[in-house]
Design brief:
The protein is mostly helical and 416 residues long. It is built from 18 helices and 4 strands. The chain has a two-stranded antiparallel sheet. Strands 3-4 form a two-stranded parallel sheet. A hairpin with a 4-residue loop joins β1 and β2. α3 crosses α8. The N and C termini lie far apart (87 Å).
């Protein structure tokens, strides 16, 4: 039998290094670097980006349709506010459980199942026959979509080494803005339509499921996180995934991947029955409120709260205000005057009168261009991360956060 470790040049046999004998043990970061960055990581970024985009479209997209849905379901102002916020309530209630599920059952498996359930209840909301059905469906849409909002960051980060992780995560965040552009674009295109078989707001809810459906399909081409396998003590499965990534990125055979073992401190916690998993979840939750962690927990929670309030909160509240400011352009009204005008006008008009008025789409167009500028800022941040490094970027991010908080306080003072 021919010895594959040798080739003959017609003279002496020249010994080649056996590929497998060249392999060695790496730590996890080195193992990721060995896969290089290429086609697989671009596919991963696209699929994870669609997941993040799907979450923003499903949750924030309701703000576009709740005033149109008023004509069909006769929503009160309070019900409109509840409709706009109930998706966030579902996200808050499920986020912790989704994160724990991703750690115990797997990131990809959790995202796949949550997207499947999210699409089902979102499609059900399209055919809502009353306000209660619509609210329940939108609540569970937010409840299930939270996995694709949070777990995609973990999944993307665990496929990247420290050299490329920050840059790709920054690009992933820009898909939130792409989702906002998608929402406003669909509103401008679909709300003016006069359809006999489906109301425009129902059609928008239908097209809002498209990113989730595309993402669900995409995740069937993404293997489970190698870090998850490593945490579960399944090093052989981890190596197989990294070999596949290496082959897709470089075009080389899987056998040429230069790593056959990973030096890693095994996790103490393994997969148990449901009772043990619930105990583990409780134990890990209590840990973040221990004396040595409570300050960091409160600090990061406060920062996340501010970001959500400034970003998502104002975004949900501004469209109706901007709509009425555009309607009464030329008149001198403060924001508080406009809010009072919305309330008075809504109470004085009948549903037939409100629904007979042609919808003004100016504010959707304004938000469309605002989000385009927002996207440019994200791209600049990604470039900044690459050029100057994550340390300066972190400092830059702190200044941006301080400026945002200051801007919010100044804006609030003017509104008041």
């Amino acid at each position: 039998m021919e010895n594959l470790a040798y080739v003959s040049d017609g003279n002496d046999g020249i010994k080649l290094d056996n590929i497998k004998s060249n392999r060695k043990s790496f730590n996890y970061n080195e193992a990721l670097e060995a896969t290089q960055t290429g086609n697989f990581h671009l596919l991963l970024l696209l699929v994870c980006g669609l997941g993040y985009m799907a979450a923003s479209v499903e949750i924030i997209g309701v703000s576009v349709v709740m005033f149109s849905a008023d004509c069909d379901l006769r929503l009160t102002v309070q019900q409109q506010g509840l409709l706009g916020s109930i998706g966030y309530f579902g996200v808050v209630l499920s986020s912790h459980a989704m994160g724990f599920s991703a750690d115990t059952w797997g990131r990809v498996k959790t995202i796949r199942l949550s997207l499947l359930f999210s699409v089902c209840v979102s499609l059900a909301s399209v055919f809502s026959i009353n306000t209660t059905m619509l609210l329940v469906c939108r609540f569970f849409t937010g409840f299930f979509i939270s996995a694709s909002q949070s777990c995609v960051y973990t999944l993307l980060g665990e496929y990247h080494s420290s050299k490329t992780r920050m840059n790709h995560i920054t690009v992933l965040a820009s898909f939130l803005v792409i989702g906002l552009i998608y929402i406003q674009g669909m509103a401008v295109l679909l709300l003016p339509l006069k359809l006999t078989f489906l109301s425009p707001w129902r059609l928008i809810l239908l097209v809002n499921t498209f990113p989730s459906i595309c993402c669900s399909i995409g995740f069937f081409f993404i293997p489970e996180s190698p870090k998850y396998f490593l945490d579960q003590g399944r090093q052989e499965d981890c190596i197989k995934v990294l070999q596949k990534v290496y082959s897709l990125n470089t075009g080389n055979p899987k056998d040429t991947y230069p790593c056959n073992s990973i030096v890693f401190h095994e996790a103490e916690d393994r997969m148990f029955g449901i009772t043990e998993k619930l105990k583990l979840m409780s134990r890990q939750t209590i840990t973040i409120f221990n004396r040595e962690h409570i300050l960091q927990t409160l600090k990061f929670s406060f920062v996340a709260f501010l970001i959500s309030m400034i970003g998502a909160g104002l975004y949900m509240w501004l469209p109706p205000v901007l709509n009425y400011m555009v309607t009464y352009e030329g008149e001198k009204h403060t924001v508080c005057d406009v809010v009072k005008l919305v309330k008075v006008k809504s109470s004085n008009l009948t549903y037939e009168e409100k629904c007979s008025v042609e919808k003004d789409l100016t504010h959707f167009k304004i938000f469309f261009f605002i989000n385009v500028a927002y996207f440019v800022f994200f791209v600049m941040t990604a470039v900044l991360t690459t050029v100057v490094g994550k340390r300066l970027k972190t400092s830059f991010g702190r200044h941006i956060l301080k400026t945002s908080v200051l801007g919010f306080l100044i804006s609030f003072s003017f509104i008041s």
